[in-house]
Specification:
The chain is mostly helical. It contains three helices and no strands. The chain starts with a helix and ends with a helix. The model has no long low-confidence stretch (mean pLDDT 94).
Length: 82
């Protein structure tokens, strides 16, 4: 189990990285950050990459659900009686 301080640092860095990725449009920026971290701390690199992947998976999941709901609503409005 990772040191709680390392996990906290990785989580904060992941949030900041995702914000910069969004602002710059560099969707693989997290890989570059991971490389920088890995040069000095493999432990922080691994914790950071885990934190990033979990957040990116959550974003993908939310986007999928949003799309499904929009499709459902569009279909429902086509079949709704007038």
């Amino acid at each position: 189990m990772a040191d709680p301080a390392v996990t906290e640092m990785a989580n904060k860095l992941a949030e900041e990285c995702l914000a910069v990725q969004t602002a710059t449009g560099e969707d693989r920026l997290f890989m570059q950050v991971g490389d920088v971290l890995g040069a000095s701390s493999q432990t922080l690199e691994e914790a950071f990459l885990t934190a990033i992947r979990v957040r990116m998976a959550e974003i993908q999941g939310r986007n999928f659900l949003k799309k499904k709901l929009a499709e459902h609503r569009a279909q429902a409005s086509k079949t709704a009686p007038e």
